[in-house]
Write a structure and sequence with these properties.
About 40% of the residues lie in helices and about 30% in strands. The protein contains three helices and four strands; from the N terminus they run αααββββ. α2 runs antiparallel to α3. The longest helix has 23 residues, at about 30-50. Keywords: Signal.
């Protein structure tokens, strides 16, 4: 009887452990910084092609170079089920002063490195 109760207790513990959500894989701060810098650089190139000579790509590139990820929180798998969406706090130098923002970014791995997608409003 004791063995039966012990087995039942272990089965309950295993079930409770399986019911816990699995940790979501997320990029490190350095990986997220690089992924966001790459995504922003691609966005700048696209804007430069669309808007032509009136777009100040040098100033935009300067902001990208100063971008730093300060924290990554609340990562979850988005409804589409690919990659991970995280709240990311960043700082960047804009017109000589540091700005800090928190946005949700989508990250995924491709070719062994992290990629990022900017919010659609960017």
């Amino acid at each position: 009887m004791k063995r039966f109760l012990l087995a039942l207790g272990l089965a309950g513990a295993c079930t409770a452990a399986l019911a816990q959500p699995a940790p979501v894989a997320a990029p490190t701060i350095d990986q997220a910084t690089q992924a966001l810098q790459n995504a922003m650089q691609r966005e700048i190139q696209a804007m430069n092609a669309e808007q032509g000579p009136g777009f100040d790509s040098n100033a935009a590139t300067g902001v990208v170079k100063t971008l730093e990820v300060k924290s990554i929180d609340n990562c979850r798998t988005p409804p589409a089920g690919q990659g991970v969406a995280c709240q990311v706090r960043t700082t960047a130098e804009l017109k000589g002063s540091k700005t800090e923002e928190t946005n949700t970014y989508h990250f995924w791995q491709q070719g062994g490195r992290w990629e990022a997608r900017l919010p659609s409003g960017s």
